[in-house]
Specification:
- The chain is α/β, with parallel strands linked by helices and 285 residues long.
- The protein contains nine helices and seven strands.
Amino acid sequence: MESTRSAPHHGAQEAQTYATMLTRMNRFQEPEARLAMRNLHLPMGSRGLDVGCGVGLYSLWLAETIGPQGYVVGIDHVAERLEAAQQLVGGALEPGRLSFRQGDGTALAEADDSLDWLWCGDVLHHIDDPVKALTEFMRVVRPGGHIIIKESQVLHALFLPGHVALERQLQRAELQYQQSEAGARSFQERRQHTRASMFEAGLRDVRVQTYVVERQAPLDENARAYIQHVIFERNWGPRIRGFLDTQDWEQRSALCEADSPRAILARPDYYCIYPLSLFTARLPM
């Protein structure tokens, strides 16, 4: 997608690593994401678009939600992600229910008023001009249709229960690391500005609903893989080392390294809390 600040890809290995990260995040969110989709009451047999589809799991779940007569197109600006989506879920449904193609969320190929709904998950905060993207979303959705913006962690998640000061420092370091991508307004601020952006684009009656992902020991495979590999090793890994002092880094390593005798995920009392929010607007008739 044009005007997005996404992770750069410098080769097949890096693209595969990023696709694996997206897959782990999606699988971690899956039960609550599916519930959120059901609660949208999207029309059975409807036609929808998933903007920024990534590895395609959300596109698949949306297609399953609207039934065998429905049709979902997933678009992404990164060819490697579309390849990953095709490999992961491309053959999961009958032909004519789900497809993927390369596309730009700020210049959609769809005709005016051609869609019943549009979903954009964890992507709008990457777009430099969200109002431009939202205006384009409004163009392609029919009167009475819906635009759904999903954002994870509008509020920070809790991954280190009982370690408030350290987790705050890790979150601060992550925001500092992302500053080169996000610019003057952090990704967190952009997420929290979602409803305001929708109003600026001319949408009204924008509803916000937050679903809470709660996981506790013993963790299932999806939860453990996401927290350990994506949060602890990627987001809070060596890339943020320069934004932490020695004491915080040592404490982080003691709690977050899988082979540490103090690894927090090995504790029988471990739990995490993680919010994902839907901002939903219905276009006037």
